[in-house]
Write a structure and sequence with these properties.
With 250 residues, the chain is mostly helical. The chain is built from eleven helices and no strands. The chain is globular. 32% of the residues are buried. The model has no long low-confidence stretch (mean pLDDT 86).
Length: 250
């Protein structure tokens, strides 16, 4: 009941914000600076063929490839750090340091290295998204209770058994927490990469519309990017509930 009330409150708040935006845009009457939500939706409908056939698939490909690499890289680093303290001391500062460099400053360098191919955008996406997966998953491994490990050891379990039966179940909730952050950041990473150097994609299209002083055209692909982020988040939440139903039954 409380969740339904909270969801209803969120919907009402968003609705009020959209009404306020619509009224403000109509008063200002500067569609390039602040197009109204209605104008954005109309422009999105007008551009649906071009966005759907070329730019949306290009962005989705970047997001999927980037997320796949980030999951493999993030989980792999977390496992390595969990298995060896020496590896943890060597890698953890590097992982932290990777997030102190402004990605928007590195993106043009990746364009110089990889050109306008998909990989310049994928690298940007990976740099943004692997961090929450790696750190959260590693924290999950650390959260495994020593009592459970000691109990299995007394029962003759091997390190492999302990890892599979204690460490992984302990890390899974943390992994999904990191993944929920990563999927939303992946949309930002793909858009940044496309904005700074691409031949197709929603970020590229938004920048192109800006050069044409088409305010509604700038916002139209941003709406799609936002919807992609929300959809990916909901997919991860659904996977989490399905795979961790044992936790929900407690």
């Amino acid at each position: 009941m409380k969740k339904r009330i909270a969801n209803l409150s969120s919907i009402i708040l968003v609705f009020i914000m959209l009404i306020g935006w619509e009224i403000t845009a109509r008063i200002i009457r500067l569609p390039f600076v602040l197009p109204s939500p209605v104008e954005i939706l109309i422009r999105l409908w007008e551009l649906k063929a071009e966005l759907g056939s070329t730019h949306l698939p290009a962005t989705l490909l970047i997001i999927m490839v980037g997320l796949t690499i980030s999951i493999l890289l993030g989980v792999g680093l977390a496992v390595l750090m969990n298995l060896s303290k020496s590896v943890e001391r060597a890698l953890y500062p590097i992982i932290i340091s990777s997030q102190t460099i402004p990605i928007i400053a590195l993106a043009p360098i990746f364009v110089l290295w990889f050109g306008y191919s998909i990989w310049s955008k994928v690298v940007v996406t990976v740099l943004i998204t692997f961090f929450p997966i790696a750190v959260n998953t590693f924290d999950g491994f650390l959260s495994a209770k020593k009592e459970y490990k000691e109990l299995l050891l007394t029962m003759g379990a091997s390190k492999k058994d302990i890892f599979l039966k204690v460490s992984i179940p302990s890390a899974l909730p943390y992994f999904f927490s990191g993944l929920k952050v990563a999927v939303t950041l992946s949309v930002i990473g793909a858009a940044i990469g496309e904005w700074l150097g691409a031949q197709a994609g929603l970020g590229y299209f938004s920048r192109r519309m800006m050069t044409q002083f088409d305010g509604a055209g700038v916002f139209a692909p941003i709406v799609l990017l936002s919807l992609i982020g929300i959809l990916l988040f909901l997919v991860v939440v659904g996977m989490e509930k399905w795979l961790l139903n044992w936790r929900n039954e407690k």
